[in-house]
Predict the 3D structure of the following.
Amino acid sequence: MSETPTTAPETPKLGFRHVRLVIALAVASLLGTFAVYMAFADSSIPVLMIDQASAYSGKKVRLEGKVTQSAGDAADPGGLRFTIRDYDSSVTLPVIYHGSVPDAYKIGRDVVIDGTLTNGVFTAVPDSLVTKCPSKYSDKASTSSTAS
Amino acid sequence: MALIGQGSLILAFLLALYAAGASVYAATGHDRRFLASARHALWGIFALVMVADAIFLYAIFTHDFSFTVVADNTSRSLPLVYLFTAWWGSQAGSLLLWVTILSVFSLLALRSTQRVLGELQPWLIMVLALIGAFFLLLLVVPASPFVTQIAPADGRGLNTALQNPYMAIHPPALYLGFVGLTIPFALAMAALLTGRVDARWVVASRRWTLAAWGFLAIGMLLGSKWAYAEIGWGGFWAWDPVENAALMPWLVATAFLHSVMVQERKGMLKVWNIALVSGAFALVIFGTFLTRSGILSSIHAFVASNIGWYFVVALVAIVGGAFALTIWRLPLLRADQRIESLVSREATFLFNNLLLVGIAFAVFWGVVFPLLTEAIGSVRQTVSTPFYEFFVIVFGIPLLLLMGVGPLIAWRRASLKQLRNSFLWPLTLGIATGVAMSAFGLASSWPSVAAGSVCAFTTVAIISEFVRGTAARRRIAGENWLISFFHLVDRNRRRYGGYVVHLGVIVFVIGAIGSSAYETQAAGLLQPGQSLQVGSNTLTFRGVEKTRGPNYLERAAVIEVTSDGSSIGTLRPAKREYIREQTTSNEVALNTTLTGGDLMIILDGIRGDGAVQIKAFYKPVVSLLWIAGFIFAAGLLLCVWPDKREARRIRRRYTEESLPGES
Amino acid sequence: MFSAIILGLIALVVILAVAWPLVRPARDEDRLDPLSANQRRRLALREERDLALSALNEIELDLATHHIGEDDYAELVADYRARAAAAISALDAEGESTVANGPA
């Protein structure tokens, strides 16, 4: 039980300093990936109330508001045309939408929609219409916010 | 009745505070009687919570709408099984379920650690009791299940999205996972408090971590299946904050699960492990804070409700407490050894930690980004699927690679010759898969090819582990292949159970990539008799059918499906109007083929003139996602299965103090 | 009123159960001590012994499945055997049997 190895190991043993260096490099590259992605990729979009939308004309944004008027069919070439109104003020915008319409959609419903505002008309990204209805079972607060 | 329920909860809350105090006194005042009293208090909490549960469930099943929560979440026409699931259909009810599970788990944890970790018991009780007190406080003040009102004639009914079998199991499965992570966290804190920070607490927490991890994984899979089959927007994971709330702790728990192996064998990564288990638990609390406080609707909604503030205080206490304890015990947490080589299993586990925490951080960032941007005063910004997918791919593919590399590398260091032998087949077949994918026109996106190759690499690596282990055993024990295999797995349950789970992950990844990167879709407005083509399937619309269910009216589009001439069947995507709840839900039609792919038809709308707007997807190998769940379960069972030999060894180790010599 | 009585009864039962261990005065065997230094040392030795023994098992498996070469195997085995031997002899010196459950 007292044999001691006399042969040198086949691989050169990297010193602990090298190991620490590589680990530090790994952490740095992980963080670097974050930084690079956040800086350069088109990764986020602003979420706006209707009265803020005009400031972002021409850019892709997400709007939150209430549906006040609605006509047309999202499946037709003409699309679904509805009016979205700001929660607090009376600012409204006309929206043209194509794509699938959530079941909960109706006049008076709070909705979220992505798109671009050009010449006063909000052209929506297809299939981006989402309703914010008080159906989240554990979210008590959303019930109170949609009561407004 | 409500009075008894509320009173029981208040009493339980007070008992929890008492249990915390009594157990601390037992440890500092060296008085075993107080430890017994604290234990009795935990039993008392369990009994009181049972009373509260009984009253709550009784109210639900007898349609007692004088209970506000019952009236808001059930109705007379709600089918029986969904009356039961209505228990967790509300804020207060789900918290009651949480506390029920916590009280049971606390008692189980005490029992399982009694002999092995006597020293930690008082502190374990203290931490568990304080956590229990927090949730009981929520039930007593902001979210009581026993608020009463004048009973309306009928209740508002259950959220229609919850009225299906997956939602019956999904929340309890997740809660078992969330609450399950409490125990390892409590053990870690008790270890820090007593200064007994060696591998003991890790060994004791092992099965809890495995079980909790498993429940979270199964819970998330069930939620995905629900989103896929019931909500039916075409996918199975939307990177919704509620989904992320379960994913984040699961990722960190995965890291913890692996990292503790290094501490057990090498006495390294001790601080990592404390940090990981605390992080996992903190993310559990954070996740439940996100979904309950309304902060995601907007910061203003958060301020309006006050349950959020309780969670903020709890989070600060948990993170601050864990951090302070770690700093205090830092001298004891020094590693016994250092990592000698990058080509060692220790190093692999360290990189594993980094990647998993990296993904968890990316998800966390995506979740809090809207809150941060809104809080700093400017416009709220949000990220969506591309953000999450980027990090899952960039960090996930190396992770998959490590999953294959790890088993092939030995502890401490591996030699070139061994590496060459071990990696030969996996590398070859991995590269071959990549080439084959390109050749067969499956190289539509580089992540798919990379993931496909890495999956092949890792699968071959894992299978080679089974083969080599069986061969080695056969050589040593002289048994035949089958018996060798069983004995090998039986004597190394955790290792080979883990490999089975890894295979499950591969299956899941293949299913995820196959069903999204390689899906075909089509949409159209169809008059009766018209057809739509999706891949090799022809969908012909025949007409609308109306049926009546127990609490709904259904209108279905009858669609005949043929593929290359032969009939597949008739699918009926539908829209259901729930009468009592006054909402409409979409019922997606799914047909699973023999190759594991799905044809999915969504009814977007029915026009006045009888035409229907439908959308259809063909998703290859999507069934692998669900099959992976069974593989997970099998592997996990293997890992947690009680091992008498090991249990005996551990018992012997910790109970020999009672031997004569020094009492 | 009826509810209040039931609640009171429940509270009474629970409080009794909790107070029961405290009713009698503290006796000697009620002393709850952390492990003594000797007990801690022995526990650490046992853990060291078990760790070394299970590592040896794993190394055998690693060699049989060709994860490590003969050289590394020899070195690691020597190391762990030495550690196990040291722990076992230290435990023996304390008068503790490491083979059976019974007294030395």
Residues 36-104 of chain C form one domain. The helical segments of chain C are 2-23, 37-64, 70-93.
